[in-house]
Structures are given as C-alpha cells and as structure tokens.
Amino acid sequence: METTFKDIRSKRNPKSRVKVMYGHFATPHSHVNTYIDVSTVKCRHNNARETARELVKDYAETMVETILALEGTEVIAAFMAEELSQNGIMNINNGSNISIIAPEFNQIRQMILRDNTQRMVLGKQVLILASSVTTGKTIRTAMNCVSYYGGRVCGVSSIFSSVDQVAGFPVHCIFSDKDIPGYEAYVNEECPYCKQGVKIDALVNSFGYSKL
C-alpha cells in the first residue's frame, strides 16, 4: 500500500476534491485497488458548499422535498437544500423547506427510520445522497427504505461513483472511476489480488480506513 495520498480535483470545480491511495482494500461489498478519501468535501464547509453547488445542477427541474443523507453526507446535503430552495422564477423548489435525514441500520443491517422522521419521507420526493457508490448495493437498500416508508425516489447523487446507474436511476456524481487513474473494483470472490495471495492492506468504509 502506498503511504501517501494524491489530490484529485474536480474539473468542474477545484474546491471539490478527493484524495486517493493505492493498494488492496476491502469494502463492505467489494475489493478495490484504490482508497478514495472524501473527508475533505464531507467535513470542510467551503468544500462541501462547492460540491453541493455542482451536484444540484442536475436537479434544476426536479422537485426535492427530502434528502436522505447516507455515509456522513449531512453537511453537503444541507448546502444542497439551501441551493435547491433559493428564490428564483425558474426554480421548482423555490422557497421549499427541504428535510435532511440520516437513516440507521438495525441488528440485521436493515436501513430504518425512527418514528419522528418517517413523516419526512411519507409521500415525499426523496433525493438519495451518498459519499461513494461502488456496487450500488447500499443505494438499492436506501431505495427500498424510501419505498417502505412511503416515499418516492427522485434522484441519486454521490461524491464518487464507479457505476453509471442504479435500478434505472442515473448516479449524478462529482468523480467517476474515469477520473481516478487505474481505479478497479472487484467482486470479493474474483479479486485478482486475493487470487495472487496479496494481503489486504486496510478495511475501508464510509468512515475511513483501518490498516491491517
């Protein structure tokens, strides 16, 4: 595993940036050869704001009533809501009070909402926001969650995505696998590093990475 990070900035907005490190990493649903650190745009308000401004451009004509913020993306979601609800004659969300909620997982890894936030999904247009989409499994789980609580998915956005669409919805992202030199993701059983006996360098998830 390389021990240094490399900065990659968005072509659309240089303040939207991620850091990458190469090695052999295990995610909850796959193995990858690149760890993508999105903490800068998730945690720093200037970077989060600029990222949000880019993401909302895909929803100029989409009614958004709730943002389901996955994987610690609440700060970006708040800035997206602010941008979406700005006053403007051509803005379909003009003056809206957009809800931002984060789901939980129960003991059997089902995505759930508490009673006090379910009303923010029931009958609402829900935008799903993630930090990273590799296989799309978490997005599908989120879609099922929205449907279960009576909402309608109106879009999917992510900071990074290696897939173009999930369940028929395009994944609007700042960075794709084409922006990350050499990025590869593998089904666990088909990982070439594992087949060659290369040890896993770190476990990674939406919180970060832990070296082994």
Keywords:
212 residues; alpha/beta; six-stranded mixed sheet; globular
Share of residues in helices: 10-25%
How much of the sequence lies in strands comes to 25-35%
Number of helices: 6
Shape descriptor = globular
Topology order in helix (H) and strand (E) letters: EEEHHEHEEEHEHEEEEHEE
- Mean pLDDT value: 94
Distance between the termini: 11 Å
- Class by SSE composition: alpha/beta
Low-confidence stretches: none
Tell how many strands the DSSP assignment holds: 14
Radius of gyration: 17 Å
Sheet with the most strands?
6 strands, mixed
Textual characterization of the structure:
With 212 residues, this protein is of the alpha/beta class. The protein contains 6 helices and 14 strands. Strands 1, 2, 3, 12, 13 and 14 form a 6-stranded mixed sheet that branches. A 6-stranded mixed sheet has the order 5-4-8-9-11-10, with helices on both faces. Helix 2 (45-55) packs across helix 3 (74-84). The chain is globular and about 55 Å long. It starts with 5 loop residues before the first strand and ends with a strand. 39% of the residues are buried.
